[in-house]
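Exercise 7. Predict the joint structure of the components listed below.
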Amino acid sequence: MNKRIITSTLLVMLLLTLAFYINNARIQNNNFFQINDTVEKIILYNKEFDLYLKNSFTYNNFDIIENKIKKSKQEFEKLHSNELLKKLDSSKLHHLLKTLYSQIPQKYEIIARVKSYRAILNKSFVIAQKLKKDGIDKNLSPLYTTIMILDKNPELNIQNELQKLDKLFNMYTSKNDKFFLKHSKTILIYQEKLNVIHQNLKKSSLETSLNKFNTNYNYYSQSIIKKAYLSIVILFILLIFAIIFYLAYDYNLALSKKELSRFRKTVEDSDNIIVITDANTRIKYVNATFTKVTGYTQEEVLGKSPKMFNSGEQSPEFYKELNETIYSGKKWSGKFINVSKDGTLTYEKATITPVFNEHNEILEFVAIKLDITKETKSQEQLIKKEKLLLQQTKMAAMGEMLQNIAHQWRQPLSIISTASTGLLVKKELNIKTTPEEDIKTLNAINDSTQYLSETIHAFSDFFNPSKAKTLFKIKDVYQKTLNIVLSKFKNANIEIVENIEDISITNLDNELIQVMMNLLNNARDVLITKENIKRYIFVNISKTDHNVVITIKDNGGGVPFEIIEKIFEPYFTTKHKSQGIGIGLYMCQEIISKHMNGKLTVNNKNFTYKDVHYKGAEFKIEFPLS
Amino acid sequence: MKKLLLLQLITIMLFSEELITPIPLENNVNEKKAFLGHKLFFDVRLSKDNTISCATCHILDQGGDDNLKVSFGVDGKTGNRNAPTVLNSKFNHTQFWDGRVINLEEQASGPIHNPVEMNSNFDEVITKLKKDKKYIALFNDIYQDGITPKNITNAIAEYEYTLITPNGRFDQFLRGDKDALSSDEKKGYKLFKEYGCISCHNGVNIGGNLMQKIGVIENFESSDKGRYNITKNEADKYYFKVPSLRNISLTSPYFHDGLTPTLKDAVIKMSYYQIGYTLSEIEIDYIIKFLHTLTGEQNFKKEISNE
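Solution:
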């Protein structure tokens, strides 16, 4: 904007200068022609005056010459009062002018003088003529001739004639003769005076001075006007350049303005919060989204520091690092926990970018922030939910465990009970027992106790979630799992067909037990609903180049097509409420994918086993070998 | 030689026909300016004590002068020169007896400042005129800058341009009416030419276009040295403006000193000092008769109207 004003001002100034120069040149030009015209007129009048002065004496109507003098004086006055002529910076011209100013009035005086002399001469001539006509002495005829052609005879020595004439006065006595002599003398005297004037005229020629001035002035003016026109041309070219520059600049400006306005609209309409501060982090711009998210209007925050949004949730070191980054001229990215006008916390994912001016100084900071409060909160909820789920699973698993424990302990406990009771009854009834029998009985008790101990060990292992990945054999893990669930399977008359490779991996063993137990239990739950078929579970543990692949397949008919997509979702269950809460498979997938870097998938399979055709679900666990 | 002389004579004759021209019948003046100038011409406020106006000495129905030897200014002071007529003064090429100015504007400021005439100055005059609303209106109507010295003299001069006396009998004669003059008057005109009077008294104003020495042949005794007083040039001694002969019979007394009361005396003095000759009584009579034909019609506005 500022630049535009400066450019416009410069342009206007240039234009004004040009106008001034053109006007100046015009004035100079006009003045030149005016003065030239005046001088030419004076020259013309002077020529007429010279002609008048040279002319032989005749009767004159002095009005004619006086009118010319009047006009000539007007021109002379024009010349005399011309302001620009006074300011000429040429000493030569000033000198010539000075000569003119003295010579021209002299000329007028000479004409006035010549007029009066000529009037006298004319008068005396007519009187002499009248007297000649009226009759004068014949001896005076040569004198008459002499005076009549006096002005045509410049060689004549008038002084001599006057001396001669003076002698004649005594020789003639008639009134007319004396009158004639008087006027002859007057003619001689005034002709002599005229001659003197003519001689002086030749010495100082006004015409020469006028022409000299005219020539010099023309030369001077032309050089001045030439200079003026040159400056005009230069200015004009400059102006054209300036206009082109201005137009180009304006065009660029309009273009970038258009771009800017587009950009601005984008910024204003953006779902991102945009805050622009000056170099001292005083807010100078916020967009509409800002107001929507924080509740602060633009007026409330302009000129203030963004520190006002500080919730105190983040450490001073966080802000220190932020300031160091942006003031060093680098972009900063991170998350803010800020406080809104109504006191609620907002989570903002932000990028702060310093903007530099042409001198590479920080001009402003642009913060672009995305309100992630909702996302953050839902994630927190998710984590909480997951914890809850895990807890629920554990509890469910524990219930199952206890069921299993109860189931598995029933037999050994009954053995222990039977053996010890049998032994006790025999002792009370004093039935003799052989030491071999006793040992056998005690061994049975001992074995059973041993078994109990082992199962407890297995369970307690299971309840300790793996803290770190350990190296284990998958076969062992599978065996442990089987130990936990086996009793249930025997009751259900399910045959487990195993094809197990011996593979060692480093991973979470207890989690794997939990998953496999879950999958085996699921298979069993399905199979026990199927009557009239032989119930199979196929367990396959193998490895590919990089992965361990564990498949657990049943012949339970497969997962119905319409729910196969949903079975890994939490709280989805096909079982009766008393049987499950629907988090088993969800947890399995969570464990495999998130904790063990693997994946759990399900597919329905058609297959043939011992010449019988079956259909069933196959769960596949894959995780990397290392 | 004879041929040359003949040629000379012919040219003289040819030129002599045009030596005097009649006063133009048309006179273009600015009516508004002339009206204002007329008012000023008759206004005594132009003088110091409000006693003298231009018209005091230039009495328009007495030939445009005051018929006094010399005029009376404020406090009855007198100068040393006879008041020339204001009539036809526009045709004069110089003004005042010594020809010190060339136009009527410049002339008009002369008497205002002359101590023996109006003895005032423009500051005083303008102060007085500005009290008159009519003047303010009249000046503002004509001039952008209102009442100024230049505008006062400009208006007076414009009025003076109207003071012309055209169509006198001699002008009618010049225009071709050969019967406009009697034979005596024609003889007078012939003598006027033959004695060379016309060599100085020529042009439309029959004078007023030449500075000439009084006493060319015989010395004219006068304390007034004429133009010499202005130029201090020896050659200008006794040089005066050749006065107009128009309305000459109305403008006695004559010459710059006003010491010549009658036209006859004036003719005799002129013939003596300027041509060194004594005219016969009959010649003088003819010439005077001719001079009377130079009186023209005086149809200009004379008296100030009562508004």
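Discussion. The longest strand of chain B covers residues 211-213.
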